[in-house]
Design goal:
278 residues, mainly alpha, globular
Length: 278
């Protein structure tokens, strides 16, 4: 139950972070947005270090660095994807990919589910699909480029979560600190090399920084959830984060929600209930 609640919290934080990051990327080049979001996220994790502790073992350093590279790619790809829109279609596609890969890894590593889990796990994946398919009247179709970016973002998110899960359970927040330091360095380096292509627009500092803080919180909750539960269950619940993005896009941007997406949100609630019984 603790792992379930942590995963739900992670899902909510990811959904809000994605929405704000996508809005920020609409106001300036995506790298300018990530240049603010990534260091803000690192600052949060450094503040949590004295409270939660950190053990910088070779394994924690290695897996943390790997997650950082994947995180930098996920930041850039996801925010660029959401900036292209529509958010209520592209965000769930990334979620489906980001859920499927960790589930496969968890099953290959020997994780087993009870009867409720065997029902809830596929229903959770179906819920993600339902939220992602169909376009309500007035909702624009995503371009092929946007779809490819969404798939790439989902794969990058999945790798980030898998790498964090592989880090030693007694390493505290060390993998998060190392990962975010690496992702910040990668982002700033890329921005420096491409500075002439970033355009004159200034980033939306408040939106970008808040997105980074929420992403840091989401990573932390996921890490603790994965340490106290199965990756297969935690990954599916975390991947329901498009629910938050879709609802925010509906209320703030007036993006329409297809009936199938409403069914998907209901299926997600049932899936979480079943997984809670696992």
């Amino acid at each position: 139950m603790i792992a379930l609640l942590l995963a739900l919290g992670s899902s909510l934080a990811y959904g809000c972070a994605d929405f704000l990051g996508g809005l920020g990327a609409r106001k300036a080049h995506v790298l300018r947005t990530v240049m603010v979001a990534a260091p803000a996220s690192l600052a949060v994790e450094l503040l949590l270090w004295p409270v939660l502790g950190a053990s910088f073992s070779p394994a924690a350093l290695g897996w943390g660095a790997a997650s950082g590279v994947a995180s930098a790619a996920a930041f850039a790809l996801l925010y660029k994807t959401l900036a292209m829109g529509p958010m209520n279609v592209l965000s769930p596609i990334t979620a489906l990919v980001s859920a499927a890969l960790p589930v496969a890894v968890g099953l290959l590593q020997g994780e087993h589910l009870g009867t409720a889990g065997l029902l809830g796990l596929p229903l959770g994946l179906v819920a993600v699909v339902l939220v992602s398919v169909g376009h309500g009247t007035g909702s624009s179709r995503p371009s092929r480029t946007a779809l490819l970016l969404a798939l790439g973002a989902g794969a990058a998110i999945a790798l980030q979560l898998i790498f964090l899960h592989q880090a030693p359970s007694d390493s505290g927040v060390a993998p998060l600190i190392i990962g975010r330091a690496v992702s910040s360095a990668v982002t700033l380096t890329a921005a420096g090399l491409l500075h002439r292509r970033l355009g004159p627009e200034k980033p939306a500092y408040a939106l970008s920084a808040t997105a980074g803080v929420l992403d840091s919180l989401a990573n932390l909750l996921f890490l603790f959830a994965a340490r106290s539960g199965d990756l297969t269950v935690v990954a599916v619940i975390t991947a329901l984060y498009p629910a938050g993005t879709v609802l925010l896009a509906r209320s703030v941007l007036a993006e329409r929600i297809h009936k199938g997406q409403v069914v998907g949100l209901g299926a997600a609630a049932v899936a979480v209930s079943l997984l809670a019984l696992t």
